[in-house]
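Re: the 375-residue chain
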Amino acid sequence: MAERIKRIGLDNVVATETELSYIDGQEGVLLYRGYNIHDLAENATYPEALYLLWNGELPTAGELESFRDDLAGQRAVDERVIEVLRQMPDDADPMGVLRTAVSTLGNLDSRADETSEEANRGKARRLVAKFPTVVAAYHRLREGREPVAPDPSLGHAANFLYMLHGEEPDDVAAEALDTSLLLYLDHGLNASTFTCRVISSTLSDIYSAVTGGVGALKGELHGGANEAAMRMILEIESVDRAEKWVDDALDKGKKIMGFGHRVYRTEDPRATHLREMSRRIGESTGETKWYEISKRVEETMLDRKGINCNVDFYCASVYYSLGLPLDLYTPLFAMGRVGGWSAHVLEQLSDNRLIRPRAEYVGETDASWTPVDER
């Protein structure tokens, strides 16, 4: 009998091979297709990093222009999707709405069940293009406003802000959102990505896989930390209260949101860029308070506990400074990660094997049947 190794939560279990992203948690390294996340965050856009992830190489100028145009041309969603969004309660969880919308997109796609790589790549492009349209449309509808049609002349991030607010963003705002989406694009075999690979390994369609990914990301132990971090920052309210607030919270055994990571044992390399982006956008808007509170909380946590912040912590103040509603923070995470989910589906299907781990049975083994009238 083959040896069985039990790891609760699958800690350190290698379930597959990937060429997409690499993480060294001890050294704080994150690579997309061999490229350091620092180089990508400083030089690339989200569509450029997405092209790299999907194709294994950086695009030429012409390839990038064609790729951007292709994504921009597929942003519009069927009016029947908008009708589904209109039926959602105004107080519905936006991640639950997004989950329903992805499933609806699949039902309306005539090629949903086609299994060729060409068909799956087309569906992946449509998903990446339409996620921002769905999120922005639902937000406007719940506020009693009509959705804003996508503008193909705007970049991926700038167009989302335009559809959400009804006006074009400035360059700093568009760059901040674009960088955050790039940093959320892929991160190894996390819970939502693993979910997508499990579903696609059954040869189900990519819409089903991504719907599962959204469902996994909706859980508070995966997505949602950026929203919770911002609620904490708003509660702290001022820089001079930050240190005492953290001390009181630690004394009560409360979790400080946005700190610590399942993989990283040093600074999350994605946090490096969002910290700087938080500072820059605060200076651009003339409101640096949220960055300053965040910085004081970070310094206090490092001093008291030696724990580094993660990608979600400074993302919180970036999104708040962009005027984004708190309950859209996790859907924004999904807007970035859908490109990574799709890449993993494509990789899984390129050399597929059904993912079927075992569970160790620890229940009773000698139960005796009792007739119903004797129980």
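The chain has 16 helices and three strands.
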